[in-house]
Design brief:
The chain has about 550 residues and is α/β, with parallel strands linked by helices. About 30% of the residues lie in helices and about 25% in strands. Helix 1 crosses helix 2. The structure holds adenosine-5'-diphosphate.
Length: about 550
Protein backbone atom coordinates (compact mmCIF):
# COMPACT_ATOMS: atom_id res chain seq x y z
CA UNK A 1 0.00 0.00 0.00
CA UNK A 2 1.32 3.44 -0.86
CA UNK A 3 1.35 6.26 1.64
CA UNK A 4 -1.17 9.01 1.27
CA UNK A 5 1.12 11.99 1.33
CA UNK A 6 1.54 14.68 -1.30
CA UNK A 7 4.38 14.63 -3.77
CA UNK A 8 5.54 18.11 -4.64
CA UNK A 9 8.43 18.34 -7.09
CA UNK A 10 11.74 19.32 -5.46
CA UNK A 11 12.47 22.41 -7.55
CA UNK A 12 15.10 25.10 -6.96
CA UNK A 13 12.39 27.73 -7.39
CA UNK A 14 10.85 26.51 -4.12
CA UNK A 15 14.07 27.48 -2.32
CA UNK A 16 14.09 31.04 -3.59
CA UNK A 17 10.33 31.37 -3.07
CA UNK A 18 10.75 30.22 0.51
CA UNK A 19 13.62 32.66 1.15
CA UNK A 20 11.63 35.53 -0.38
CA UNK A 21 8.43 34.83 1.55
CA UNK A 22 9.89 33.79 4.93
CA UNK A 23 13.14 35.75 5.01
CA UNK A 24 12.43 38.45 2.43
CA UNK A 25 14.25 41.17 4.32
CA UNK A 26 17.37 39.09 5.00
CA UNK A 27 20.36 40.72 3.36
CA UNK A 28 22.45 39.65 0.40
CA UNK A 29 25.64 41.68 0.57
CA UNK A 30 28.02 41.79 -2.31
CA UNK A 31 31.27 43.59 -2.98
CA UNK A 32 32.19 44.66 -6.49
CA UNK A 33 35.72 44.58 -7.99
CA UNK A 34 36.31 48.18 -6.86
CA UNK A 35 35.39 47.29 -3.29
CA UNK A 36 31.99 49.02 -3.33
CA UNK A 37 29.40 47.25 -1.16
CA UNK A 38 25.96 46.52 -2.64
CA UNK A 39 23.05 45.56 -0.40
CA UNK A 40 20.10 43.53 -1.56
CA UNK A 41 17.60 41.15 0.05
CA UNK A 42 16.13 37.73 -0.70
CA UNK A 43 12.91 39.46 -1.75
CA UNK A 44 14.74 41.66 -4.25
CA UNK A 45 16.93 38.83 -5.52
CA UNK A 46 13.86 36.63 -6.01
CA UNK A 47 11.98 39.35 -7.87
CA UNK A 48 14.95 39.99 -10.16
CA UNK A 49 15.45 36.24 -10.65
CA UNK A 50 11.87 36.07 -12.02
CA UNK A 51 12.79 38.85 -14.43
CA UNK A 52 15.82 36.79 -15.50
CA UNK A 53 13.42 34.00 -16.46
CA UNK A 54 11.41 36.40 -18.64
CA UNK A 55 14.57 37.92 -20.11
CA UNK A 56 15.69 34.46 -21.20
CA UNK A 57 12.32 34.03 -22.95
CA UNK A 58 12.98 37.31 -24.75
CA UNK A 59 16.43 36.06 -25.74
CA UNK A 60 14.86 32.89 -27.12
CA UNK A 61 16.74 30.62 -24.77
CA UNK A 62 14.80 27.38 -24.78
CA UNK A 63 13.65 25.37 -21.73
CA UNK A 64 16.51 22.98 -20.96
CA UNK A 65 19.16 25.00 -22.79
CA UNK A 66 22.40 25.81 -20.94
CA UNK A 67 23.34 29.40 -20.20
CA UNK A 68 26.94 30.17 -19.21
CA UNK A 69 28.31 32.51 -16.58
CA UNK A 70 31.84 33.89 -16.40
CA UNK A 71 31.52 35.71 -13.14
CA UNK A 72 32.75 36.19 -9.57
CA UNK A 73 30.53 35.93 -6.51
CA UNK A 74 27.99 38.77 -6.70
CA UNK A 75 24.27 39.43 -6.26
CA UNK A 76 23.78 39.34 -10.05
CA UNK A 77 25.44 35.94 -10.30
CA UNK A 78 23.18 34.78 -7.46
CA UNK A 79 20.10 36.05 -9.32
CA UNK A 80 21.20 33.93 -12.28
CA UNK A 81 21.61 30.93 -9.98
CA UNK A 82 17.89 31.13 -9.18
CA UNK A 83 16.50 32.74 -12.35
CA UNK A 84 18.15 30.47 -14.92
CA UNK A 85 17.34 27.27 -13.05
CA UNK A 86 13.92 28.35 -11.75
CA UNK A 87 12.76 29.05 -15.30
CA UNK A 88 13.89 25.62 -16.47
CA UNK A 89 17.16 26.50 -18.18
CA UNK A 90 20.50 25.07 -17.12
CA UNK A 91 23.02 27.29 -15.35
CA UNK A 92 26.50 26.47 -16.58
CA UNK A 93 29.01 28.14 -14.27
CA UNK A 94 32.33 28.40 -16.09
CA UNK A 95 35.56 28.65 -14.14
CA UNK A 96 37.34 31.72 -15.60
CA UNK A 97 40.65 30.48 -14.21
CA UNK A 98 40.72 27.62 -16.71
CA UNK A 99 42.94 27.98 -19.77
CA UNK A 100 41.09 29.82 -22.59
CA UNK A 101 41.28 26.63 -24.72
CA UNK A 102 39.48 24.73 -21.95
CA UNK A 103 36.82 27.44 -21.65
CA UNK A 104 36.33 27.34 -25.40
CA UNK A 105 36.01 23.57 -25.26
CA UNK A 106 33.43 23.47 -22.48
CA UNK A 107 31.21 26.31 -23.77
CA UNK A 108 31.14 24.62 -27.18
CA UNK A 109 30.61 21.20 -25.62
CA UNK A 110 27.71 22.50 -23.50
CA UNK A 111 26.28 24.42 -26.49
CA UNK A 112 25.58 27.42 -24.29
CA UNK A 113 23.15 29.82 -25.98
CA UNK A 114 24.33 32.93 -24.20
CA UNK A 115 27.00 34.01 -21.76
CA UNK A 116 26.56 36.33 -18.78
CA UNK A 117 29.94 37.86 -17.90
CA UNK A 118 31.51 40.28 -15.45
CA UNK A 119 33.02 43.32 -17.20
CA UNK A 120 36.46 42.33 -15.83
CA UNK A 121 36.39 39.41 -18.28
CA UNK A 122 36.07 41.57 -21.42
CA UNK A 123 39.52 40.57 -22.79
CA UNK A 124 38.65 36.88 -22.33
CA UNK A 125 35.23 37.39 -23.94
CA UNK A 126 36.75 39.12 -26.97
CA UNK A 127 39.32 36.36 -27.33
CA UNK A 128 36.71 33.60 -27.10
CA UNK A 129 33.71 35.06 -28.95
CA UNK A 130 34.83 34.20 -32.51
CA UNK A 131 35.45 30.60 -31.39
CA UNK A 132 32.00 29.98 -29.87
CA UNK A 133 29.48 29.36 -32.68
CA UNK A 134 26.53 28.51 -30.40
CA UNK A 135 26.63 31.73 -28.38
CA UNK A 136 24.11 34.27 -29.69
CA UNK A 137 24.02 36.69 -26.77
CA UNK A 138 26.65 38.23 -24.49
CA UNK A 139 25.23 39.87 -21.39
CA UNK A 140 27.51 42.14 -19.34
CA UNK A 141 26.66 41.97 -15.64
CA UNK A 142 26.51 45.71 -14.99
CA UNK A 143 24.48 48.92 -15.30
CA UNK A 144 24.07 50.65 -18.66
CA UNK A 145 26.45 53.48 -17.76
CA UNK A 146 29.27 51.06 -17.01
CA UNK A 147 28.68 48.87 -20.07
CA UNK A 148 32.15 48.17 -21.43
CA UNK A 149 33.06 48.48 -25.08
CA UNK A 150 33.22 44.86 -26.19
CA UNK A 151 33.90 43.67 -29.72
CA UNK A 152 31.17 41.01 -29.87
CA UNK A 153 27.88 40.63 -31.70
CA UNK A 154 24.76 40.62 -29.55
CA UNK A 155 26.11 42.59 -26.59
CA UNK A 156 23.49 43.32 -23.92
CA UNK A 157 23.45 45.02 -20.56
CA UNK A 158 22.09 42.91 -17.68
CA UNK A 159 20.37 45.77 -15.87
CA UNK A 160 18.67 46.97 -19.05
CA UNK A 161 17.65 43.44 -19.90
CA UNK A 162 15.96 42.70 -16.62
CA UNK A 163 14.44 46.18 -16.38
CA UNK A 164 12.69 45.46 -19.67
CA UNK A 165 11.41 42.08 -18.49
CA UNK A 166 8.30 41.62 -16.39
CA UNK A 167 8.84 39.33 -13.40
CA UNK A 168 6.99 36.07 -14.09
CA UNK A 169 4.00 35.74 -11.75
CA UNK A 170 4.79 32.10 -10.99
CA UNK A 171 7.73 29.81 -11.59
CA UNK A 172 6.99 27.01 -14.02
CA UNK A 173 6.42 23.60 -12.44
CA UNK A 174 8.15 20.65 -14.08
CA UNK A 175 9.72 17.28 -13.33
CA UNK A 176 12.13 17.49 -10.39
CA UNK A 177 14.62 15.34 -12.32
CA UNK A 178 15.05 18.12 -14.90
CA UNK A 179 18.66 19.31 -15.28
CA UNK A 180 19.40 22.49 -13.30
CA UNK A 181 23.11 23.28 -13.26
CA UNK A 182 26.20 22.15 -15.13
CA UNK A 183 29.77 22.16 -13.85
CA UNK A 184 32.82 20.80 -15.60
CA UNK A 185 35.59 19.02 -13.72
CA UNK A 186 38.90 20.79 -14.12
CA UNK A 187 40.38 18.08 -16.34
CA UNK A 188 44.03 18.06 -15.29
CA UNK A 189 44.35 15.11 -17.65
CA UNK A 190 42.20 14.98 -20.77
CA UNK A 191 39.26 17.24 -21.57
CA UNK A 192 37.02 18.54 -18.78
CA UNK A 193 33.86 16.49 -18.29
CA UNK A 194 30.43 17.92 -17.51
CA UNK A 195 28.51 17.06 -14.35
CA UNK A 196 24.81 17.76 -14.85
CA UNK A 197 22.88 18.26 -11.61
CA UNK A 198 19.11 18.03 -11.31
CA UNK A 199 16.61 20.07 -9.29
CA UNK A 200 15.95 17.03 -7.13
CA UNK A 201 19.63 16.31 -6.44
CA UNK A 202 20.25 19.99 -5.66
CA UNK A 203 17.38 20.36 -3.20
CA UNK A 204 18.21 17.09 -1.42
CA UNK A 205 21.87 18.13 -1.26
CA UNK A 206 20.84 21.49 0.24
CA UNK A 207 18.95 19.67 3.01
CA UNK A 208 22.12 17.69 3.72
CA UNK A 209 24.26 20.84 3.73
CA UNK A 210 21.96 22.52 6.27
CA UNK A 211 21.96 19.53 8.64
CA UNK A 212 23.49 20.17 12.05
CA UNK A 213 26.27 17.63 11.57
CA UNK A 214 27.31 19.07 8.23
CA UNK A 215 27.45 22.81 7.42
CA UNK A 216 24.73 23.48 10.03
CA UNK A 217 23.25 26.57 8.38
CA UNK A 218 20.41 28.42 10.05
CA UNK A 219 18.45 31.68 9.80
CA UNK A 220 20.87 33.14 12.34
CA UNK A 221 23.92 32.63 10.13
CA UNK A 222 25.74 35.14 7.99
CA UNK A 223 27.81 33.19 5.50
CA UNK A 224 30.86 34.52 3.70
CA UNK A 225 30.94 32.61 0.42
CA UNK A 226 34.62 32.63 -0.47
CA UNK A 227 34.30 29.46 -2.54
CA UNK A 228 33.51 30.68 -6.05
CA UNK A 229 30.00 30.25 -7.43
CA UNK A 230 31.66 28.45 -10.36
CA UNK A 231 33.19 25.74 -8.16
CA UNK A 232 30.87 22.74 -7.64
CA UNK A 233 27.75 24.91 -7.01
CA UNK A 234 29.74 26.83 -4.40
CA UNK A 235 29.34 23.75 -2.22
CA UNK A 236 25.56 24.36 -2.28
CA UNK A 237 25.79 27.55 -0.21
CA UNK A 238 23.42 29.59 -2.46
CA UNK A 239 20.78 26.86 -2.24
CA UNK A 240 21.28 25.88 1.40
CA UNK A 241 21.33 29.52 2.54
CA UNK A 242 18.03 30.17 0.76
CA UNK A 243 16.58 27.04 2.36
CA UNK A 244 17.13 28.49 5.83
CA UNK A 245 17.22 32.24 5.22
CA UNK A 246 20.86 32.81 6.11
CA UNK A 247 22.37 36.17 5.18
CA UNK A 248 24.83 35.81 2.34
CA UNK A 249 28.02 37.79 1.83
CA UNK A 250 29.50 37.57 -1.67
CA UNK A 251 33.07 38.90 -1.85
CA UNK A 252 33.59 39.45 -5.58
CA UNK A 253 37.07 38.89 -6.99
CA UNK A 254 39.09 40.31 -4.08
CA UNK A 255 40.06 37.39 -1.89
CA UNK A 256 43.17 38.85 -0.30
CA UNK A 257 43.32 38.35 3.49
CA UNK A 258 42.59 41.95 4.43
CA UNK A 259 39.52 42.14 2.19
CA UNK A 260 38.25 38.87 3.68
CA UNK A 261 38.89 40.08 7.20
CA UNK A 262 37.03 43.35 6.60
CA UNK A 263 33.98 41.54 5.26
CA UNK A 264 34.02 39.06 8.14
CA UNK A 265 34.15 41.91 10.62
CA UNK A 266 31.88 44.48 8.99
CA UNK A 267 29.12 42.03 8.11
CA UNK A 268 29.35 40.00 11.34
CA UNK A 269 29.84 36.72 9.46
CA UNK A 270 29.25 33.63 11.61
CA UNK A 271 30.43 31.14 8.99
CA UNK A 272 32.76 31.21 6.00
CA UNK A 273 33.61 28.62 3.38
CA UNK A 274 36.65 28.45 1.11
CA UNK A 275 39.52 26.26 0.01
CA UNK A 276 42.50 25.89 2.38
CA UNK A 277 44.82 28.05 0.21
CA UNK A 278 42.63 31.07 0.98
CA UNK A 279 42.80 30.36 4.72
CA UNK A 280 46.55 29.69 4.53
CA UNK A 281 47.05 33.21 3.19
CA UNK A 282 44.55 34.63 5.66
CA UNK A 283 46.32 33.14 8.68
CA UNK A 284 49.78 34.11 7.36
CA UNK A 285 48.50 37.72 7.13
CA UNK A 286 46.94 37.58 10.58
CA UNK A 287 49.92 36.01 12.35
CA UNK A 288 52.20 39.05 12.78
CA UNK A 289 49.37 41.33 13.89
CA UNK A 290 47.13 39.04 15.83
CA UNK A 291 47.95 40.62 19.18
CA UNK A 292 47.34 44.15 17.95
CA UNK A 293 44.51 43.81 15.43
CA UNK A 294 41.03 44.83 16.57
CA UNK A 295 38.94 41.66 16.66
CA UNK A 296 35.84 43.31 18.07
CA UNK A 297 32.86 42.79 15.82
CA UNK A 298 34.21 39.46 14.67
CA UNK A 299 31.44 36.89 15.19
CA UNK A 300 32.99 34.08 13.21
CA UNK A 301 32.24 30.65 14.69
CA UNK A 302 32.82 28.18 11.86
CA UNK A 303 35.04 27.99 8.83
CA UNK A 304 34.50 25.16 6.42
CA UNK A 305 37.17 23.98 4.06
CA UNK A 306 37.58 21.25 1.48
CA UNK A 307 38.94 20.61 -1.99
CA UNK A 308 42.34 19.96 -0.45
CA UNK A 309 43.14 18.93 3.11
CA UNK A 310 43.41 21.76 5.64
CA UNK A 311 46.55 21.05 7.65
CA UNK A 312 46.55 20.52 11.41
CA UNK A 313 48.32 23.83 12.03
CA UNK A 314 45.49 25.66 10.28
CA UNK A 315 42.86 23.99 12.44
CA UNK A 316 44.81 24.87 15.60
CA UNK A 317 45.40 28.47 14.59
CA UNK A 318 41.73 29.06 13.87
CA UNK A 319 40.93 27.57 17.28
CA UNK A 320 43.63 29.38 19.25
CA UNK A 321 43.68 32.76 17.56
CA UNK A 322 40.01 33.25 16.73
CA UNK A 323 38.06 30.62 18.70
CA UNK A 324 36.79 29.25 15.37
CA UNK A 325 35.92 25.61 14.61
CA UNK A 326 37.23 24.44 11.26
CA UNK A 327 34.80 22.00 9.69
CA UNK A 328 36.66 19.80 7.25
CA UNK A 329 34.58 18.40 4.40
CA UNK A 330 35.29 16.17 1.44
CA UNK A 331 33.58 15.71 -1.87
CA UNK A 332 33.90 16.14 -5.61
CA UNK A 333 32.21 18.03 -8.42
CA UNK A 334 30.73 14.62 -9.27
CA UNK A 335 29.13 14.38 -5.82
CA UNK A 336 27.49 17.86 -5.70
CA UNK A 337 29.99 17.98 -3.71
CA UNK A 338 29.19 17.07 -0.09
CA UNK A 339 29.92 13.48 1.01
CA UNK A 340 31.66 13.75 4.38
CA UNK A 341 31.85 16.45 7.03
CA UNK A 342 34.06 16.50 10.12
CA UNK A 343 31.65 17.26 12.90
CA UNK A 344 32.26 15.84 16.38
CA UNK A 345 30.50 12.90 18.02
CA UNK A 346 29.12 12.84 21.57
CA UNK A 347 32.38 11.34 22.79
CA UNK A 348 34.31 14.44 21.68
CA UNK A 349 32.45 16.66 24.16
CA UNK A 350 34.81 15.73 26.98
CA UNK A 351 37.81 14.88 24.83
CA UNK A 352 41.17 16.64 25.12
CA UNK A 353 41.54 19.52 22.62
CA UNK A 354 44.18 17.57 20.72
CA UNK A 355 41.83 14.61 20.28
CA UNK A 356 39.28 16.94 18.74
CA UNK A 357 41.93 18.25 16.33
CA UNK A 358 42.88 14.64 15.50
CA UNK A 359 39.24 14.23 14.44
CA UNK A 360 39.16 17.49 12.45
CA UNK A 361 42.24 16.61 10.44
CA UNK A 362 40.25 13.74 8.96
CA UNK A 363 37.94 14.43 6.04
CA UNK A 364 34.88 13.74 8.18
CA UNK A 365 31.99 11.30 8.42
CA UNK A 366 29.53 10.47 5.71
CA UNK A 367 26.39 12.59 5.77
CA UNK A 368 22.94 11.01 5.41
CA UNK A 369 21.93 10.58 1.78
CA UNK A 370 25.18 9.22 0.41
CA UNK A 371 26.91 5.91 1.05
CA UNK A 372 30.63 5.21 1.08
CA UNK A 373 32.55 2.00 0.52
CA UNK A 374 36.27 1.27 0.86
CA UNK A 375 37.63 -1.29 -1.61
CA UNK A 376 40.94 -2.93 -2.50
CA UNK A 377 42.42 -3.15 -6.00
CA UNK A 378 40.15 -6.14 -6.80
CA UNK A 379 37.01 -4.39 -5.60
CA UNK A 380 36.88 -6.40 -2.33
CA UNK A 381 35.42 -4.56 0.65
CA UNK A 382 38.03 -3.38 3.18
CA UNK A 383 37.41 -3.05 6.94
CA UNK A 384 36.75 0.31 8.58
CA UNK A 385 39.70 -0.09 10.94
CA UNK A 386 41.42 3.24 10.35
CA UNK A 387 44.42 1.39 8.86
CA UNK A 388 43.37 -0.39 5.65
CA UNK A 389 43.97 1.89 2.67
CA UNK A 390 41.72 1.46 -0.34
CA UNK A 391 39.74 3.38 -2.90
CA UNK A 392 36.59 5.24 -1.87
CA UNK A 393 33.44 4.47 -3.79
CA UNK A 394 30.30 6.50 -3.36
CA UNK A 395 26.64 6.37 -4.33
CA UNK A 396 23.59 8.40 -3.42
CA UNK A 397 20.97 10.88 -4.49
CA UNK A 398 23.41 13.63 -5.39
CA UNK A 399 26.11 11.49 -6.98
CA UNK A 400 26.65 11.50 -10.75
CA UNK A 401 25.15 8.67 -12.81
CA UNK A 402 27.14 9.56 -15.96
CA UNK A 403 28.94 12.55 -17.43
CA UNK A 404 27.20 15.03 -19.73
CA UNK A 405 26.78 13.68 -23.27
CA UNK A 406 28.05 10.35 -21.97
CA UNK A 407 31.72 11.42 -22.01
CA UNK A 408 33.77 8.72 -20.35
CA UNK A 409 31.01 6.14 -20.94
CA UNK A 410 29.74 4.01 -18.08
CA UNK A 411 30.99 5.43 -14.78
CA UNK A 412 29.08 3.30 -12.27
CA UNK A 413 29.62 -0.35 -11.39
CA UNK A 414 26.78 -2.87 -11.41
CA UNK A 415 25.69 -1.84 -7.89
CA UNK A 416 25.66 1.85 -8.76
CA UNK A 417 28.95 2.79 -7.07
CA UNK A 418 31.03 5.65 -8.47
CA UNK A 419 34.83 5.31 -8.18
CA UNK A 420 36.23 8.49 -6.69
CA UNK A 421 39.90 7.84 -7.51
CA UNK A 422 40.70 8.81 -3.91
CA UNK A 423 42.64 6.52 -1.59
CA UNK A 424 41.64 6.59 2.07
CA UNK A 425 41.11 4.81 5.35
CA UNK A 426 37.85 4.79 7.31
CA UNK A 427 37.99 4.40 11.09
CA UNK A 428 35.46 2.52 13.24
CA UNK A 429 33.59 5.79 13.96
CA UNK A 430 33.24 6.37 10.22
CA UNK A 431 35.81 9.16 9.88
CA UNK A 432 37.46 9.08 6.48
CA UNK A 433 41.11 9.95 6.14
CA UNK A 434 42.23 10.67 2.60
CA UNK A 435 45.78 9.53 1.98
CA UNK A 436 46.09 10.50 -1.69
CA UNK A 437 44.60 10.62 -5.12
CA UNK A 438 45.23 7.04 -6.30
CA UNK A 439 47.40 8.41 -9.08
CA UNK A 440 49.55 10.41 -6.62
CA UNK A 441 50.15 7.62 -4.15
CA UNK A 442 53.79 6.72 -3.40
CA UNK A 443 54.41 2.98 -3.55
CA UNK A 444 57.54 2.22 -1.60
CA UNK A 445 58.62 -1.41 -1.23
CA UNK A 446 55.04 -2.65 -1.63
CA UNK A 447 53.73 -0.24 1.05
CA UNK A 448 51.90 3.04 0.45
CA UNK A 449 53.15 6.37 1.73
CA UNK A 450 50.59 9.17 2.11
CA UNK A 451 51.75 12.37 0.43
CA UNK A 452 48.89 14.34 2.03
CA UNK A 453 50.03 13.40 5.53
CA UNK A 454 53.65 14.40 4.95
CA UNK A 455 52.54 17.66 3.33
CA UNK A 456 50.32 18.49 6.27
CA UNK A 457 53.00 17.77 8.82
CA UNK A 458 55.53 19.83 6.89
CA UNK A 459 53.31 22.92 6.88
CA UNK A 460 53.12 22.79 10.65
CA UNK A 461 56.85 23.75 10.61
CA UNK A 462 56.93 27.45 11.54
CA UNK A 463 59.00 28.46 8.49
CA UNK A 464 56.97 26.60 5.86
CA UNK A 465 54.21 28.23 3.81
CA UNK A 466 53.25 25.29 1.58
CA UNK A 467 54.59 21.82 0.79
CA UNK A 468 54.13 19.12 -1.83
CA UNK A 469 55.28 15.51 -1.91
CA UNK A 470 55.73 13.50 -5.10
CA UNK A 471 57.21 10.11 -5.90
CA UNK A 472 60.69 9.77 -7.39
CA UNK A 473 62.03 6.46 -8.71
CA UNK A 474 64.27 4.32 -6.51
CA UNK A 475 66.29 1.27 -7.59
CA UNK A 476 65.35 -0.83 -4.56
CA UNK A 477 62.09 0.60 -3.19
CA UNK A 478 60.54 1.48 -6.60
CA UNK A 479 59.39 4.88 -5.38
CA UNK A 480 60.41 7.23 -2.62
CA UNK A 481 58.97 10.58 -1.47
CA UNK A 482 60.51 13.89 -2.55
CA UNK A 483 59.47 16.92 -0.49
CA UNK A 484 59.11 20.32 -2.15
CA UNK A 485 58.95 23.26 0.23
CA UNK A 486 57.77 26.82 -0.37
CA UNK A 487 59.11 28.75 2.63
CA UNK A 488 57.29 31.62 4.35
CA UNK A 489 58.41 35.04 3.21
CA UNK A 490 61.64 36.09 4.92
CA UNK A 491 62.28 32.64 6.43
CA UNK A 492 65.09 30.30 5.41
CA UNK A 493 64.43 26.78 6.62
CA UNK A 494 67.16 24.22 5.89
CA UNK A 495 66.97 20.68 4.51
CA UNK A 496 68.40 19.28 7.76
CA UNK A 497 66.01 21.36 9.86
CA UNK A 498 62.94 20.16 7.95
CA UNK A 499 64.05 16.51 8.04
CA UNK A 500 64.80 16.80 11.74
CA UNK A 501 61.31 18.25 12.32
CA UNK A 502 59.68 15.39 10.43
CA UNK A 503 61.80 12.67 12.00
CA UNK A 504 59.92 12.84 15.31
CA UNK A 505 56.54 12.90 13.60
CA UNK A 506 56.52 10.19 10.93
CA UNK A 507 57.80 6.62 10.56
CA UNK A 508 61.41 6.37 9.36
CA UNK A 509 60.48 4.70 6.10
CA UNK A 510 58.15 7.60 5.28
CA UNK A 511 61.00 10.15 5.57
CA UNK A 512 61.48 12.06 2.28
CA UNK A 513 64.66 11.10 0.42
CA UNK A 514 65.31 14.76 -0.31
CA UNK A 515 63.94 18.25 0.30
CA UNK A 516 63.94 20.91 -2.42
CA UNK A 517 63.12 24.56 -1.79
CA UNK A 518 60.98 26.23 -4.45
CA UNK A 519 59.80 29.80 -5.04
CA UNK A 520 56.18 28.70 -5.41
CA UNK A 521 54.10 25.60 -6.10
CA UNK A 522 51.81 25.25 -9.14
CA UNK A 523 48.04 24.91 -8.59
CA UNK A 524 45.06 23.81 -10.65
CA UNK A 525 42.17 26.16 -11.43
CA UNK A 526 40.46 24.90 -8.27
CA UNK A 527 43.46 25.44 -5.99
CA UNK A 528 44.84 21.92 -5.86
CA UNK A 529 48.57 21.20 -6.09
CA UNK A 530 49.30 20.47 -9.73
CA UNK A 531 51.20 17.24 -9.20
CA UNK A 532 51.37 16.35 -12.90
CA UNK A 533 53.49 19.46 -13.41
CA UNK A 534 55.59 18.78 -10.31
CA UNK A 535 56.24 15.23 -11.51
CA UNK A 536 57.22 16.55 -14.95
CA UNK A 537 59.63 19.01 -13.33
CA UNK A 538 61.06 17.03 -10.44
CA UNK A 539 60.02 13.41 -11.07
CA UNK A 540 63.53 12.37 -12.06
CA UNK A 541 65.30 14.22 -9.30
CA UNK A 542 68.26 12.32 -7.87
CA UNK A 543 68.59 12.95 -4.12
CA UNK A 544 71.83 14.36 -2.77
CA UNK A 545 74.10 11.37 -2.10
CA UNK A 546 71.54 9.08 -3.79
P1 LIG B 1 38.35 19.35 -9.54
O1 LIG B 1 37.43 19.94 -10.55
O2 LIG B 1 39.63 20.08 -9.34
O3 LIG B 1 38.52 17.87 -9.66
P2 LIG B 1 36.80 18.76 -7.26
O4 LIG B 1 36.38 19.66 -6.17
O5 LIG B 1 35.80 17.98 -7.98
O6 LIG B 1 37.59 19.68 -8.20
O7 LIG B 1 37.93 17.78 -6.75
C1 LIG B 1 37.60 16.63 -6.05
C2 LIG B 1 38.84 16.04 -5.44
O8 LIG B 1 39.45 16.97 -4.57
C3 LIG B 1 38.57 14.84 -4.58
O9 LIG B 1 38.43 13.67 -5.35
C4 LIG B 1 39.80 14.82 -3.68
O10 LIG B 1 40.90 14.20 -4.31
C5 LIG B 1 40.10 16.27 -3.51
N1 LIG B 1 39.55 16.73 -2.23
C6 LIG B 1 38.32 17.24 -2.00
N2 LIG B 1 38.17 17.53 -0.70
C7 LIG B 1 39.31 17.17 -0.08
C8 LIG B 1 39.76 17.20 1.28
N3 LIG B 1 39.01 17.67 2.26
N4 LIG B 1 41.00 16.74 1.53
C9 LIG B 1 41.79 16.27 0.54
N5 LIG B 1 41.42 16.22 -0.75
C10 LIG B 1 40.21 16.66 -1.06
Amino acid sequence: MLGLMQTRPLLISTLVDYAASQHGGREIVSRDPEGVIHRSTYAAVAERARRVGQALDMLDVRFGQPVATLAWNSFRHLELYYGVTGSGRILHTVNPRLFPEQIQYIINHAEDGCVFFDPVFVPLVEQLAPLLPHVRGWVALCEADSLPAVKVDGLLCYEDLIAAAEPAAEWPVFDENTASTLCYTSGTTGNPKGVLYSHRSTVLHAFAACAADSLAFSARDTILTVVPLFHANAWSIPFAAAMCGAKLVLPGPRLDPESIFLLLQQEGCTAAGGIPTVWLNFLAWLEPQRDTIDLSGLKLQRVFAGGTAPPRAMIEKFRDWLGVFLLHAWGMTETSPLVTAGSPLAKHADAAPETVVDMQVNQGRQVYGVELKLVDADGGKLPHDGRSVGELKVRGNWVISGYFKNEGGQVLDAQGWFSTGDAATIDPDGYVQLTDRLKDIIKSGGEWISSIEIENLTVSHPDVFEAAVIAIPHPVWQERPLLLVHAKEGREPTRAGILDFLSTRIARWWMPDDVLFVESLPHTATGKLLKTELRARYGNHVPAGG
